[in-house]
Write a structure and sequence with these properties.
By secondary structure, the protein is mainly beta. 15% of the residues lie in helices and 37% in strands. The N and C termini lie far apart (128 Å).
């Protein structure tokens, strides 16, 4: 083979090898692209926008819920009991699903079921003073994920400035609510006395000897008459303080059943302890929900800032009047020991009391 042919073959071999090398490099480059695309896709997935919660502006926004032309309704216009009532909220982020009004003595309490569990505490005052307040309502979350609060009010148809604690932000936010008296049933109100109202007269007639005949002289059956302090008839006779057996006896209240339907009940309070200057007033209100019982009690004094029941501390719920507390009980007709901390002395003192609740 001539030199020229050998040189030509060598050059062709070199060119062929160069082309193969170039193709291999190109394929390698092409193989990297999918890997880069996969990495970019993963990055894109990680940076997808997350739904944002309420803004600070939305959290603080409050609508005007004033009831124009409505007169305030105080507790002295209402009968004791528990009633359904409509309660408006000034914040769309504090949606009230259900509400009840509990009237005990001279105290009114709202029981509010708020949508969701975004708030864990509620206070009947503005957010600025909530952090240092003691009369704070701790929310109770139910099986549906909604939260119930209890808060004291002084009147209906008036805007109450309150506040709620949002767990997500760790902050108190101002809220407003208004309880509408027009939504109450008619039997919630006491009868209105007018100028034409006159006391009912007794139909009985008295003679000079003090004997009284007619219906007014009878007791529990109407057959008994009174003459010189002696009472005869089927209702039992009294002579020298002695009472005969029969319908004149006073029986005790029936024992409470083991289970009560959900709702609110009146319970009498047997109370002892302390100096006798202050006590828990009777009756109290029993709340039954899902087989669990709590009682709302009112003291005859505004000087109790907390109670301890079963080792748990409960704060006063009523800053503007006699102290009010709500705490759980395990059973009725059972004597329990409680502690009340009174601030009536120069320094606060914890005093031990016994209390017993019985269904009326």
């Amino acid at each position: 083979m001539s030199f020229r042919k050998t040189a030509a073959l060598f050059i062709c071999l070199v060119l062929a090898l160069s082309m193969l090398a170039g193709c291999g490099a190109g394929n390698a480059n092409n193989a990297v692209v999918p890997a880069n695309n996969t990495e970019n896709s993963a990055e894109n997935e990680n940076t997808l926008p997350v739904p944002a919660g309420p803004t600070e502006e939305e959290m603080t926004a409050l609508a005007d819920i004033t009831k124009a032309g409505a007169q305030a309704v105080a507790v002295d216009k209402l009968k004791e009991g528990t009633y359904d009532i409509n309660v408006a909220s000034g914040s769309g982020l504090f949606k009230i699903l259900e509400s009840k009004l509990v009237v005990v003595g001279d105290v009114m309490q709202l029981v509010l079921k708020v949508e969701g569990d975004a708030y864990s505490r509620m206070y009947a005052g503005d957010a600025a003073s909530a952090a240092s307040a003691t009369a704070v309502s701790e929310g109770e979350v139910d099986s549906d994920g909604n939260t119930t609060f209890r808060v004291m009010i002084k009147s209906l148809n008036e805007v109450l400035k309150c506040s709620a604690y949002a767990d997500a932000s760790g902050k108190w936010y101002d809220r407003t609510i208004l309880a509408d008296s027009d939504s109450l049933s008619a039997d919630a109100f006491k009868p209105v006395e007018t100028a034409d109202d006159t006391p009912k007269k007794d139909d009985g007639k008295k003679d000079d000897s003090g004997k009284q005949d007619g219906g007014s002289g009878s007791q529990d059956g109407g057959s008994g008459s009174q003459d010189g302090g002696k009472q005869d008839g089927g209702s039992g006779s009294q002579d020298g303080g002695k009472q005969d057996e029969g319908s004149g006896e006073q029986g005790g209240s029936e024992p409470a059943s083991d289970t009560l339907a959900d709702g609110d009940y009146k319970v009498s309070v047997a109370f002892s302890g302390g100096t006798g200057k202050a006590k828990i007033t009777s009756p109290a209100t029993l709340h039954v929900s899902g087989g669990k019982m709590t009682v709302t009690v009112q003291w005859s004094s505004p000087n109790y800032d907390y109670m301890k029941v079963g080792g748990t501390r409960y704060e006063n719920q009523n800053n503007g009047g006699n102290s009010v507390f709500t705490f759980p009980i395990s059973a009725l007709d059972k004597t329990i020991t409680v502690i009340g901390d009174t601030t009536a002395m120069s320094t606060p003192h914890e005093i031990e009391y016994t209390v017993r609740f019985s269904l009326q």
